[in-house]
Amino acid sequence: MTIHIDRRRLIAGAAASLVGVTLGGRAAMASSWWDALGSAEALTRTAQRGLLAGAKLAPEFPESSLSPTFRANGSTDPREAAYKKLVQGHFADWRLEVGGLVDTPLRLSLNDLRALPSRTQITRHDCVEGWSCIGKWSGVPLGEVLKRAGLKSSAKFIVFYCADAFEQTLDGSGQYYESVDLVDAFHPQTLLAYDMNNAALTVPHGAPLRLRVERQLGYKMAKYLMKIEAVTGFEKIGGGNGGFWEDRGYQWYGGI
Ligand SMILES: Nc1nc2c(c(=O)[nH]1)N[C@H]1C(S)=C(S)[C@@H](COP(=O)(O)O)O[C@H]1N2
Ligand SMILES: [Mo]
């Protein structure tokens, strides 16, 4: 047991210093030493991969580079009744569900999200269709939310479920969704964005919350977020390829 505790402390410390997070009371709340050890190891692995391979930041730009208009693409006005109702209520009833392989499932309002640590970045959005726009995004780093939910060691991917069906199909396969691995999930520029160009995100751009994964192509940046889920794999979700466009032939890792 002593060995486990020491190792846990060591790993937790390493993870905290590498990614600049504090595990806080998280380890003490874990259901078993093994859970604590596992989660810390997952975080360490993520942090180390981040440092060694994936920590590169996407380029950021000055205000003067902002595109005068930022094109909207894909779904720009979801017709789903549930979503329309949320728009009418100015998203007061909207909640982001955080679940799956986490210790503490969360239901977060926009105010909850705005109360968490935030980051602002000006980045270039590259759509696979061949256009780019530079925009300013503010939001909570996804890692901050995952840290609070506490990922179980079996979690390998984060799946994002959206309010819109881009193509309405009888079997429901047209529902937009996406996924990233833990390296991208904990990358400092991966945001759950609620503001664009200094104003609350508008409906065309994914209100009230969208994902920014700045080192990947536009289709990864899921708009109209409703739920995020930590999973071991995405074989049984949607068409099994990790995203709406991936199910239609696009690469899961849409690197740029
Ligand atoms: N929910 C949802 N997210 C989505 C899409 C969509 O149709 N539905 N389209 C994707 C594509 S292909 C791109 S290029 C960007 C467009 O974001 P924008 O409308 O802010 O330009 O959103 C991505 N996220
Ligand atoms: Mo796109």
Topology of this structure?
Blueprint (H helix, E strand, L loop, with lengths): L1 H18 L6 H4 L3 H22 L26 H8 L7 E5 L5 E3 L1 H6 L3 E8 L5 E10 H8 L7 E9 L9 E7 H4 L5 E6 L2 E2 L9 E3 L12 E7 L25
Parallel strand pairs: 1-10
Antiparallel strand pairs: 1-2, 3-4, 4-7, 5-6, 5-10, 7-8, 7-9
Helix pairs in contact: 1-3
The chain binds the ligand Nc1nc2c(c(=O)[nH]1)N[C@H]1C(S)=C(S)[C@@H](COP(=O)(O)O)O[C@H]1N2 and molybdenum atom (MO).
Question: How does this structure look, described?
Answer:
The structure is a single chain. Residues 1-37 have low confidence and may be disordered. The strands form 2 sheets. A 5-stranded mixed sheet has the order 2-1-10-5-6. Strands 3, 4, 7, 8 and 9 form a 5-stranded antiparallel sheet that branches. The protein contains 7 helices and 10 strands. With 256 residues, it is α+β, with helices and mostly antiparallel strands. The protein is globular, with a radius of gyration of 18 Å.
- The average pLDDT is 85
CATH architecture of the largest domain: Alpha-Beta Complex
- In total, how many beta strands? 10
Number of domains: 2
What Rg, in angstroms, do the CA atoms define? 18 Å
Q: Strand-and-helix sequence, N→C? A: HHHHEEHEEHEEHEEEE
Major β-sheet annotation: 5 strands, mixed
Number of alpha- plus pi-helical segments = 7
Ligands bound to this protein structure:
the ligand Nc1nc2c(c(=O)[nH]1)N[C@H]1C(S)=C(S)[C@@H](COP(=O)(O)O)O[C@H]1N2, molybdenum atom
